[in-house]
Amino acid sequence: MTSAPVRNPATTRLATTRRYLMCAPTHFAVEYSINPWMDPTRPVSTAGAIAEWEALRQTYLRLGHTVETIDPQPGLPDMVFSANSGTVIDGVVLGARFRAPQRAAEADFFRTWFLDHGYRDIVMPEKINEAEGDLTWTGDLLLAGTGFRTDPGAHAEAQEVLGVPVVSLQLVDPRYYHLDVALFVLTEATPTSRAHIAYYPEAFSPGTQRLLRRLYPDAILATAEDAACLGLNAISDGRNVILPKEATTLTTQLHAHGYTPHPVNITELRKSGGGPKCCTMELRDRT
């Protein structure tokens, strides 16, 4: 399976300013294993993770984006992965409810951050819901992953709380335990054009693959090698794409489609199964 041909290589991609919430990996460690990437016996450099995180933050700032931060908490080594703790659309916040008990306490720290920063429309889910880890906003649809973490019942809950249409996607490969390590949005939908996405087909069930082909026939399809370095755990502002430096084939495809890739190092963060997107919650306030 190959990506659709580039329809217009000269397409001018337009960046839009974003606002992100991040958490420094001050207490980063791999002390338990809740996904196939985590090996507590493998050495981890907290200082290295902090350097990677700071380089990512500086990349966002250099590109003109706003970065808010939440204070890291001792005993929560995965709190750096802020994307898992909230989904914000039009100023409405759907919080998180983690499947793994080791991460459960993170959700309330993020709820408090939202309250302290003026958000009032906040709902904490009843179903297991790992937020932007499994919920991806495309501009007109909320793509919702399930299979390993987020409960399928959380998809209906997200639709009710956020007031947007939800499309359920079935993940089948445990290495790609969240939607955000198998798919990301390059350009959001507009009233006259569909979203442009990239994804790794084999991470999904056959029916979901057919659905994605129907919804996004011009998607960029990642190789197994690019998926295996968490190359799809990426962030795009519509033009600039921040992704792991090892995702070289994906980088070449992005260039061909008119995007500007910004490869970053996630050597330490990847040891916990995370990358640029995992470290980045987008704050989509009311416009």
Automatic annotation (TrEMBL):
GO biological process, one term: L-arginine deiminase pathway
GO molecular function (one): arginine deiminase activity
Signal sequence range: none
Protein name: Amidinotransferase
